[in-house]
Amino acid sequence: MNHFLSRRNVFAWVLGCACALGLVGTAHAVEEPADVFVKRVSGDILDAIKADKSIQRGDVNKIVVLVDQRVMPNVNFLRMTASAVGPGWRQATPEQQKRLQEEFKSLLVRTYAGALDQVNDQTVVVKPVRAAADDKEVLVRTEVRGKGDPIQLDYRVEKSADGSWKVYNMNVMGIWLVENYKTQFAQEINAKGVDGLIASLADRNKTNARAAR
C-alpha cells in the first residue's frame, strides 16, 4: 500500500472507507439528494464510532460484522472492486471476482480499523452540489473539520434503480481510493496474474491480522 497517509488525514480515510463500506446507515424509501445522503450517512458513522469504544479501539471482528450487515444499502462494492482491479477484472472468473471483492474489503477494513481511535470531535460539512436533478452520478464534496486545517473528503456516488445512492469511489486530499489501488493491482496482475493479486491481498490481510493481535 502507498504510504501517503499522515496522522492528520488518517481520520478522513477512516470515515470515508467506513462510509464507502456501509459501516452504518440504512436505505431510505424516499429518494433523497446526493448531498443529503452523504451528510446522513457520515453523521451516522461519526455517532456510531463515538458511541462504541470497542470500534474506536479497532475491534476488527466487530467492524467486519457491522460492514457485512450494512454494506449493501450504501455502496456499489462490485463496481469499486472492478474499477480498482482494472482490465484484469474481465479476465477473472466469477470465483476469482468473488475472492477479489472479499480480500479487497478485508484489506480496507483492516488497514483503517487501527486508526479509529482518532475519532473525537470531528464534524463533516457538505459543500453545495453542482448537479442536475436527473443526474445519475454525482460528485459530493465535503470537509472534515476538527483540530487543524479542514481535510478534503469527496465522494463519487451513483443512483441505483430503486432511487437510492451508492458510493463507488472517494477522494482524500486529492487522492482517489480506486485509482490509488488500481496502480498497485495492475502491477500485481502484470507480474503474477489474477491469482497472484488474490494471493498478495490475502497475504497482506494475514499480515495485518497478525499485527492487530
CATH topology: Nuclear Transport Factor 2, Chain: A
Instruction: Give the number of domains.
Output: 1
Strand % is 15-25%
Structural class: alpha+beta
- What is the β-strand count? 5
Our measurement of the CA-to-CA distance between the termini, rounded to an integer number of angstroms, reads 20 Å
Order of helices and strands: HHHHHHHEEEEEH
Largest sheet composition: 5 strands, antiparallel
Which parts are unreliable, with pLDDT below 50 for 5 consecutive residues or more? 1-8, 23-27
CATH architecture grouping? Roll
**CA gyration radius, whole angstroms:** 17 Å
The CATH homologous superfamily is called Tgt2/MlaC
- The general outline is globular
Total of helices: 8
CATH class: Alpha Beta
Mean pLDDT: 80
- Largest sheet, order of strands side by side? 1-2-3-4-5
Q: How much helix, percentage-wise, in residues?
A: 40-55%
